[in-house]
């Protein structure tokens, strides 16, 4: 892994004055993906003079994530499908990678860099890209925080709030899959943040359909020893699947939970565990085999 000054110099080598550049989080971006994209956009503008666009596919449907998106003071848009650009556009991927299956990568995009905290299979990794992949980090936001700190870029209050919330959300309030760097980043960002804004995001109003899906998930839930699982027949967006798996894991005495749901002709799976050395990502990858794709961490993973 490159040291911080070398990382900044390596990024500089990828950039050209006035170039068109996109920042691509994964489809249906969560707080970590959105905060990381905003942090990278700020870094590129303030340190290198490049005005990059944040572009993503899918939608943001979870109430908290929609509220977060409302408070983002950064330019973003959806991937154009009707009138795509005629020439190639360089792109940086955050919280995902070009070989991952959770991101839509149109043919006119040219990936040049990946900044991520997920564990990727070595045989998938493309060596011709700028790579900063730290599977031990609790959040990709933490990695981008370190870039901003090293570059001495001042983080505005709104972004500090979004980044602090993202780290908290991704690590379940620093209770799973985090490192010392995540704690340091969170504490510094929280000290600069607008706590009222974080409160608005965390307690965003929930739509009625959320309660209908939650009722269905709890009705269908089954317990087997220290494991709980449930299924949702048809869902509009995938975020509820992970939320249900997280909720079930809070039940006293449970160590493993998973939730499945049908969406867009496929089945989405989310698995969680509080067991030491659970290796959820590896377990789900083995279960999926060649029939699907998956990714995640030791204590949580998702697949389609």
Identify the notable features of this structure and list them briefly:
single chain, 304 residues, alpha/beta, six-stranded parallel beta sheet, six-stranded mixed beta sheet, 10 helices, 21% strand
Outline the fold blueprint.
Elements: H1 4-14, E1 21-24, H2 31-48, E2 53-56, H3 63-70, E3 76-78, E4 89-94, E5 109-116, E6 130-133, H4 140-150, H5 157-170, H6 180-192, H7 195-202, H8 208-220, E7 222-224, E8 227-234, H9 239-249, E9 256-263, E10 266-273, H10 280-288, E11 294-296, E12 300-303
Parallel strand pairs: 1-2, 1-4, 2-3, 4-5, 5-6, 8-9
Antiparallel strand pairs: 7-8, 9-10, 10-12, 11-12
Helix pairs in contact: 2-4, 2-5, 3-7, 5-6, 5-7
Q: How would you summarize this macromolecular structure in one to three sentences?
A:
The chain is of the alpha/beta class and 304 residues long. It is built from 10 helices and 12 strands.
Q: What structural class results from the helix and strand content? A: alpha/beta
Q: Per DSSP, what share of the residues sits in E-state strands of 2 or more residues?
A: 15-25%
List the helices and strands in order. Answer: HEHEHEEEEHHHHHEEHEEHEE
Q: Which percent range fits the helix content?
A: 25-40%
Determine the N-to-C terminus distance: 31 Å
Q: Could you give the count of β-strands?
A: 12
Strand order of the largest sheet: 3-2-1-4-5-6
Please tell me how large the radius of gyration is: 19 Å
Low-confidence stretches: none
Q: Could you describe the largest sheet, including whether it forms a barrel?
A: 6 strands, parallel
General shape: globular
Mean pLDDT: 91
In quaternary terms, these chains amount to: single chain
């Amino acid at each position: 892994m490159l040291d911080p000054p070398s990382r900044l110099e390596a990024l500089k080598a990828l950039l050209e004055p006035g170039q068109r550049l996109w920042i691509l989080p994964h489809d249906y971006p969560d707080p970590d993906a959105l905060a990381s994209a905003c942090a990278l956009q700020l870094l590129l503008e303030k340190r290198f003079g490049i005005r990059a666009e944040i572009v993503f596919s899918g939608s943001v449907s979870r109430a908290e994530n929609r509220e977060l998106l409302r408070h983002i003071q950064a330019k973003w848009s959806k991937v154009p499908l009707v009138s795509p650009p005629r020439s190639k556009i360089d792109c940086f991927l955050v919280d995902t990678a070009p070989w991952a299956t959770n991101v839509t990568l149109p043919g006119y995009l040219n990936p040049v860099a990946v900044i991520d905290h997920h564990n990727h299979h070595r045989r998938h990794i493309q060596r011709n890209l700028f790579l900063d992949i730290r599977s031990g980090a609790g959040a990709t936001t933490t990695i981008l925080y370190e870039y901003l700190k090293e570059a001495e870029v001042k983080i505005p209050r709104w972004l500090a709030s979004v980044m602090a919330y993202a780290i908290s959300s991704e690590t379940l309030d620093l209770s799973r899959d985090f490192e010392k760097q995540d704690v340091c980043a969170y504490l510094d960002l929280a000290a600069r943040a607008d706590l009222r804004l974080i409160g608005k995001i965390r307690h965003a109003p929930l739509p009625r359909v959320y309660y209908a899906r939650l009722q269905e998930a709890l009705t269908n839930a089954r317990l087997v020893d220290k494991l709980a699982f449930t299924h949702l027949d048809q869902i509009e967006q995938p975020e509820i699947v992970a939320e249900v798996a997280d909720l079930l894991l809070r039940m006293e005495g449970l160590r493993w939970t998973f939730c499945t749901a049908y969406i867009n002709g496929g089945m989405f799976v989310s698995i969680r565990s509080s067991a030491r050395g659970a290796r959820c990502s590896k377990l789900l990858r083995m279960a999926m085999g060649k029939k699907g794709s998956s990714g995640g961490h030791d204590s949580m993973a998702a697949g389609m």
